[in-house]
Amino acid sequence: MKKMLTIMFLSILLVNFKTFAQEIKAEVVVNLEQISEDKRINVQAMQNDIERYINNQKFTDIKWEGPPIPIDLTIVLSGGYNNKYSAQFFVASKRHIYGTQGGTSVALKIIDKEWNFEYGMGANLSYNPMRFNEFTSLIDFYMLLIIGFDLDTYKELDGNMAYNAAKQIVQMGAAANADGYKTITKAGDYTKYNFVSELTDPRFDDFRKLVFSYYVDGLDMMSENKELAMETIAYILQEMAKFKDKKLTNHSVIIQAFFEAKYLELAELFKGYKKYPSVFRNLKYLDPMNSNTYDEAERGK
């Protein structure tokens, strides 16, 4: 039955979606508060440059179905000596939800604190996935992850091509000895390498399929049959907990990323939910860092 619902909703989604050129629609903020006044002139155009670069760029060869993925990107700059900067990169992407008027769900939230680059006024940003660039390659990497995450929510494992392209960027960055691209890491730590390695590891395919079902059989069903959608999501959380228990020996970056984006949504969704008490037990097992939020939701707060 669930498989039939999935096929039905995918058909509806595809019929109603138009084809767009670009995959992403970004709103960018560049914070210059940590840059001295005399050095800000060289980066005054960075916000517009990045926004134009992302919104006018096609990052894959996929014929994009549906509206572009909305993302909010904030870059906090520091440094500026000889046009060399460090930055913290904050990005959040959203997934459109079927049956709502402009409704979205946060799909991915990432903070990357390891970004060092050289940037000058009048920079000409160009996309070249076969060449590593300390400035644009980090942007490209996260745009590809966002695209892959979005594709995974409409068709099982459909993000593979985007993830493989992102992995190639990490390999080029490691070869260039760039900060933030090291491939010798501790399992479970958030690094670009660990993140994309899990996404391209067949061992995590079952979890990715559950994420797909969370959207198509869960969130996309809410407007049609909320009770069934809630039951489905409760079942998905149970299967995610089984996956973690039986198939993982280390902390997972994918699981951490999924629940970092979803914990507020899940807490609100199941606030005071009594039908399946195991929901909150599973949530706290999967996402112990946000246990307090789930405890309050269980109490109906």
State which percent range the strand residues make up.
15-25%
Helix-strand string: HEEHEEEEHHHHHHHH
The shape, in one word, is globular
- Tell me the helix content: 40-55%
Classification by helices and strands: alpha+beta
Largest sheet features: 4 strands, mixed
Number of helices: 10
**Radius of gyration (Å):** 20 Å
The beta-strand count equals 6
- Low-confidence parts: 7-18
Task: Give the termini distance in whole angstroms.
Answer: 34 Å
Q: What is the number of domains?
A: 2
Summarize the structure.
It contains ten helices and six strands. It is of the alpha+beta class. It has two domains: 2-200, no CATH class; 205-298, no CATH class.
How does this model look, in words?
This protein has 301 residues and is an alpha+beta fold. It has two domains: 199 residues, no CATH class; 94 residues, no CATH class. Helix content is 45%, strand content 18%. The chain contains ten helices and six strands; from the N terminus they run H-E-E-H-E-E-E-E-H-H-H-H-H-H-H-H. The strands form two sheets. A four-stranded mixed β-sheet has the order 2-4-5-6. A two-stranded antiparallel sheet has the order 1-3. Strand 4 and strand 5 form a beta hairpin. Helix 7 crosses helix 9. The longest helix is centred in the last third of the chain and has 22 residues. It starts with a helix and ends with a helix. About 4% of the residues have low confidence.
